[in-house]
Structures are given as C-alpha cells and as structure tokens.
Amino acid sequence: MRFTSPSRTIPSICLAIYGCGQLDRVADFINNSGEYVEDGVTFTPGMIAGQYAFEQVKLDRKGYDTRRLQKYLSFLADAGAYFSEEEALQRADDLINNFTADFFKR
C-alpha cells in the first residue's frame, strides 16, 4: 500500500527530538545543537521547532491549523528556545502536507 505519491519529496525527520521528552529539554536541544546533522541531513533550529509543533498538534487530535502550531511554538519559545517562527511554521506546514495529504484523498 502506497501512502505517498511517487512525485512527492518526503521531508526528513529529526529523530533526536523524540529522545528529549520534556519541553525544556527540547528547548535546550534546539539552543545547544545549532545546525544539527543527523544521517547527513542538516536541521536548523527552526526546522526542529516546526517538527516539534507538528508532533504536538498531531497528538492533540483536534486538527491541523496555524493557531495550534503557533501555540506550541509559543510554549517552546517560553521554555527558552531560539528559532525562526516563520521557518518553524513553514517546516510544520511541509510536514502536515506530506504526512497527512494522502489520508484525505478519495
């Protein structure tokens, strides 16, 4: 069963944040890693923050929208993480489009 179209480029996922657990540890990881390289892919702080917001909204199970993404990015910034909100929202949007689009097609 194919969940993605053959022409779609699937964005890489930073697996390291799954081991961080708590919000403050994710913020520390973002601040201390700079541009983090995993399996040859470079992740910027904004990309990691966007992935975090995407994952949190996914766990909410209330649907994907910018307001919810911004809420989790705000929590992350309040915990001390420094990142580009614009880049984080773009990254979260890319993840949403790539990992949810095929489930809504009929």
Placed side by side, the strands forming the largest sheet appear as 1-2
Low-confidence stretches: 1-7
Q: Judging from the principal axes of the Cα atoms, what is the shape? A: globular
- Based on CA atoms alone, the radius of gyration comes out at 14 Å
Mean pLDDT: 80
What distance separates the N and C termini? 15 Å
- Give the ordered list of helices and strands: HEEHHH
Number of alpha- plus pi-helical segments: 4
Report the major sheet.
2 strands, antiparallel
Report the strand count.
Answer: 2
Polypeptide structure, described:
The protein is mainly α and 106 residues long. Helix content is 57%, strand content 6%. It contains four helices and two strands; from the N terminus they run H-E-E-H-H-H. The chain has helices at residues 23-33, 45-60, 66-78, 85-104, and strands at 36-38, 41-43. Strands 1-2 form a two-stranded antiparallel ribbon. A hairpin with a 2-residue loop joins strand 1 (36-38) and strand 2. Helix 2 (45-60) packs across helix 4 (85-104). The two termini are 15 Å apart. Mean pLDDT is 80; it is low at 1-7.
